[in-house]
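I'd like us to work through together how a protein chain folds, taking it slowly. We need material for that, and I hope you will provide a protein of your own picking. Go ahead whenever you are ready, and we will take it from there:
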Amino acid sequence: MQTVMQIMQRFVDEARAAAANGLSWGEAGRLVGNVVRLGVAAAAELEDAPGEAKKAIVVRWTEALVDVALPVLPLPVWLRVVAPFVRPAIKAVVMAIADGLIEAAYEQFSGLRARV
């Protein structure tokens, strides 16, 4: 049986391989959504970890994925000149959105588990 860490590392490795050929913004968004969904489900299985520790794990996985995807995302021509300055801001926005997604996914996942 694979551990949670092995599953998430495999997902990030697969994303890295997909990013080698470039990613569209839609593909990157789908990857971020999937890593959040899978991460929350996997972290929920870590019974000994408190909620904040679980969230921190999912944030780290999401950030690892964003670090893989961000350099290969297409930027408009007029932004390419300032890409080194723009990409950190894009990462900050994506991570802020991911933080909200993690909270929402956890609430949804907790609600589903409570019903079972």
